[in-house]
Amino acid sequence: NKALKAFTNSKSPEDFIKLKKLRSKTRHLVKIAKTTYWHNFTSNMGTEVNPHLMWNKIRSLQGRRNHNNIHLTLNSSLITDPPTVAQKLGEYFEENSSNKHYNEDFLTNHEHSQKPSASLISHTDTHQPQLNAPITMGELFFALKKCKSKSAGPDNIPYLFIQNFSCNTYQILLNIYNFIWTKNVFPQSWRNSIVIPINKPGKNKFSPEGYRPISLLNTLCKLLEKIVNLRLIWFLEKINYFTPEQCGFRKNKSSYNCLTKINDAIHNSFATNSYLGMISLDVLKAYDTTWKPSIITNLNTVLSYSHMIKFICNFLETRTFQVRVGSTLSKSFSQINGVPQGSTISVTLFLVAINNITKNIEYPVQSTLYADDFNIFCSSKSLATIEAHLQLTVDKLTNWSKHSGFSFSPEKSHCIIFSRKRNHNPISINIGDKLLNNSKTIKILGITFDKKCSWSKHITLLKNAITPRLNIIKILSHSTWGSKT
C-alpha cells in the first residue's frame, strides 16, 4: 500500500518499478503459502487421522458443506427458528402416522382389531418354550457384539459404556431384562424416541415432505430389542414363515436375489423374442402407515400368548416422539400407527405386516420383494396379454391394500416394457382411476434398467457419480505429496 501511494503521488518510473517488484514478491509468497498449505492439508489425511475430520476435508474438496440447520418454507414464508421448525416437522410426522391415511371402510372393518384376540397356539407347541424362555447371558453378549454404533441414545448411554461393564453389572442388567421379559412390563421412557429429520435424496429441503424421520432409541432398549429380534427371526425362519420372494433383511438373501431374478426374466424374454412388462409399485409411507393390530394378528397365528407376543405389544403401544433440530427438542407427539424407523425389531415387524402381499401374484406374473420395494412383471409375445395380466394383478393388490392398511402411490409407481424391438406401444395400467406412467428406464434397488437392458443409462449415471470421487483420489495420491495411505 505504501509503494502504491508513493507511486500515485510521484508518478515516477523508480516508484513504479519498486511497486512492480513488491507485487511480484507478494504473488510469489502467496503462491508458496497456498502450496505449503495444500501439501500440509493432504498429507494429514490417512488411517491415523480421525475419520470424521478426514471426511470433512474430503467433503470440502467436493464443495459440500455440512448444514445442520433446517429451514422450512410454509405459506410463502421462511421459517428459520429451530423450535418452530421442530414443531412443524413434528406435526407433519404425527400426521403421517394418523388414521387419515386409511379410508373409512378400512377403519370401520378393522375397528374390532384394535385389540386382537388371544393366540390359539399352545405354550408347549414346537419351539414355543425356547422362544419364551428367560434371556441368557450368552444372548446378551452375542447381541452386544453386534452393537457397533459409538453414539449414545436419548439416555446418554453409548454401547461402549455397556461393553465395559463388570461381570456383576452384566448380571444386574440381565436381571433387569428378564424382569421386563417375564413380568411383561415396559419402561415408559423406552416408548419415547428422538426423531432426527434426514433430507431425502433429491427432495425439497425446505418442505416437511422432503424429510424422513429416523428414530434414536434408548441404548438399553435397543440392546434388549436385538436380543428379542434375534429370537423372533430365528423362529420365523425356522417355520418358513416369510414368503420366498421376500429378500430384505434376511440371512443368505440380499438385493442381488431380486436383481438377478429380474435380469434373468428380461433376457429369457429377449431369447424368445417376447416382451417383458414390469410395474414398480411404491408403497406409500410404508413404515409410517403399518397397521399395528395386523402385526399382532399375523403373529398370533404362529406365536403362543406368552412373553414374545406381549413384549411386541408393549413395544408398539402408545409410542411418542420428539423432533430434534440442532440442539432444540420439540414437544412430544404421538405415533398412532406405524413402526419407528431406526428400531432393530421394527424391520422384522414390518416384514411380518407386508408378508402376504405376494399371495396376490399368480402365474404368469412374477414378483420380487425387498422389504417394501415391490415389483411385478410378466412376459409374453403380446402386449395386450401382458397388459391384461398386470392389470388383473394390480386390481388384486389394490383390493389387498384396502384390507391391509397399506396403499400404493400411483405418482411414484412406474411401468416399463423391456424389448429389443425399436417401436412398440405403451401399456395402460391403472391404480384406481389413475394411469401409471410408462418409463424408458426404471431404478430398482440402486440399479437403473433401460428398456433394452443395455446398461448404458446405468453406466452413465455411475460414471457421473464416481468421476468427482476419482478426481479427489487423483489429487490426493501425488507421488511426492498427498495422503500418507
UniProtKB/TrEMBL annotation:
Keyword hit for Transferase: yes
Record flagged with keyword Nucleotidyltransferase: yes
CDD domains, alphabetized: RT_nLTR_like (cd01650)
One GO MF term: RNA-directed DNA polymerase activity
Domain of life: Eukaryota
InterPro entries: DNA/RNA_pol_sf (IPR043502), RdDP_mobile_element (IPR052560), RT_dom (IPR000477)
Domain Reverse transcriptase residues, every copy: 179-449
UniProt entry keywords in alphabetical sequence: Nucleotidyltransferase, RNA-directed DNA polymerase, Transferase
PANTHER family hit by this protein: ENDO/EXONUCLEASE/PHOSPHATASE DOMAIN-CONTAINING PROTEIN, ENDONUCLEASE_EXONUCLEASE_PHOSPHATASE DOMAIN-CONTAINING PROTEIN
Protein name, per record: Reverse transcriptase domain-containing protein
Source organism of the structure: Aphis craccivora (Cowpea aphid)
